[in-house]
Amino acid sequence: MSNLLASPLVTLPLYVAIDLIGRSLRYTVRADPESAEEPRGDAAIYCFWHRAVLPIVWYCRNHDIRVLTSRSKDGEIIARLIERFGYRAIRGSSSRHSLTGLRSLERELRDNQLVAFTIDGPRGPRYVAKPGPVLLSKLTGARIVCFYAAPERAWTLNSWDRFLIPKPFSRVHIRVSAPLFVPPDADDAQLAAAHTEMQRRLDEVRIDAEADAGIQ
Q1: Mind giving me the DSSP string for 101-119?
Q2: Which uninterrupted H or E stretch holds 26?
Q3: Where are the domains of the chain?
Q4: Which of 98, 150, 151, 188 could form a disulfide with 93 if both were Cys (CB 3.0 to 4.6 A apart)?
Q5: How far apart are CA 30 and CA 10, in angstroms?
Q6: How confident is the model at residue 87 (pLDDT cuts 50, 70, 90)?
């Protein structure tokens, strides 16, 4: 089954559709001054909500970003698809009790690579951040940067995440947070505080981007 899911018969039509839509989009970016040049080429942990995958995948393409993708059937399709856009798929989970994916990403960050999480994926709950990036920041010293992309015009799927497909020629508003760092000696209380702050920033960039896009 995994070979079938990885087949060009599945991923190529999706790639072509996303490529055609992506080429037509116009992006407006508002970033905190400390994150104005993201993505840039030093170790960082990028976090964004699952529903905004499509416009962010196009915007950040060809930066050799490592993306944690689940081992599910959906994850297999996503892994093969994003690799066509210049990403590298790392298979695993971002939960506290599933460490294989996090250890792989830790190695990538120590190699000064960029990594990314769809932070409420793969199955939600929607807009609830998982703890993986906070743990990785503590272990590696890499900054956490929260993104969101809000298209002015989009189709919204009836899925758990209300997945967005930007309509061709739409303007997409991206908001980027200030970097968040977790001290290497952070205790459980500090980790919890950092997780709460990451959640707050994820919510803030989403709300601000949607306001820029005229979404109520």
Answers
A1: HHHHHHHHHHTT-EEEEET
A2: strand 26-31
A3: 2-212
A4: 98
A5: 35
A6: very high
How far, in Å, are 73, 76, 128, 183 from residue 1 at the CA level?
9, 10, 31, 43
Using only the alpha carbons of the chain, give its radius of gyration. 16
- Bond from prior residue into 183 cis (ω within 30 degrees of 0): no
Give the contacts of 213 (CB within 8 A, at least 6 positions apart). 150, 151, 152, 171, 172, 173
Asked if residues 116 and 67 have their Cβ atoms less than 8 Å apart, the reply is yes
Please measure the distance between the N-terminal and C-terminal CA atoms of the chain and give it in whole angstroms.
42
Torsion 201-206-209-215 (CA) sign:
negative
Q: Which of 2-16, 93-107, 198-212 has the lowest mean pLDDT?
A: 2-16
pLDDT in tens, 123-141: 889 999 999 999 999 999 9
